[in-house]
Amino acid sequence: MNDDIQTILYSEQKIQDACQRLGQQLTQDYQGKKPLVICVLKGAVPFTADLIKQMDLYMDIDFIDVSSYHGGTQSSGDIQMVKDIDEDVSDRDVLLIDDIVDTGHTLAYLKELLKKRGAASVRVCMLMDKPEARQVEGIQADYVGFNVPNEFLVGYGLDYQGKYRNLPYVGILKPEIYQD
Predict the structure, then answer these.
(1) CB atoms < 10 A from the CB of 23, how many?
(2) Per annotation, catalytic residue among 102, 129, 142, 180
(3) Cβ of 50: how many Cβ atoms within 10 Å?
């Protein structure tokens, strides 16, 4: 797998440093509250697991799975619900955790869904933000680990056709791997 990576952007240590920084900020911002943390499957699992270890507060955790890539390298903009959350979000402070925001379609869909269901607040924590790829105006995360270039990234939860999620770092995938 490592031979398929063109460049490592964020080492395992840099990612852990970002988790610590974000965890401290979230602990401060949610002090005295018990947020419902919603992890977006499958990509955000490593990030969520490392991030919540840095959050010194009570919380509930749930999972949601939506798809917009459908195995490709770009978001189709067509969001499909794969697995819904189990918890009721009514009057809850929701913290949505995902790996990356690029086009913004998935994030816009999820925020709207949670607001319609009556969440008291919806904040978003992303490991990475790819602002150059944004297609939905006004969509942004409240907490961001890294701003990233408009490249195809894999590792630490990010995948290409289900592969590379288990790399401990984030890197740029060599174009010859995904271009036929």
Answers:
(1) 20
(2) 102
(3) 19
3-state secondary structure of 176: helix
Q: Walk across the sheet containing 121-129 and list its strands.
A: 80-83, 60-67, 36-41, 93-101, 121-129, 143-147
* CATH number for the domain formed by residue range(s) 12-150: 3.40.50.2020
164, 1 contact by CB (below 8 A)? yes
Domain boundaries, the chain: 12-150
- Residues 24 and 100: their CA atoms lie apart, in Å, by 20
Name residue, tokens 């770092």.
Answer: 169
Q: How far apart are the first and last CA of the chain?
A: 18
pLDDT tens digits, 38-90: 999 999 999 999 999 999 999 999 999 998 765 555 655 688 899 999 999 99
Minimal CA–CA distance to 67: which of 59, 78, 58, 57?
A: 78
pTM of the shown model = 0.93
Token pair of 48 as six digits: 């969520």
Residue 102 a catalytic site member: yes
Two tokens, residue 101: 């925001």
Query: b/e for 78-111, b at 16 or more Cβ within 10 A?
Result: ebeeeeebeeebeebbbbbbbbbbbbbbbbbbbb
Q: Which residues pair with 173 in a beta bridge?
A: 5
Given CA atoms 157, 160, 161, 164 in this order, what sign does their dihedral have? negative
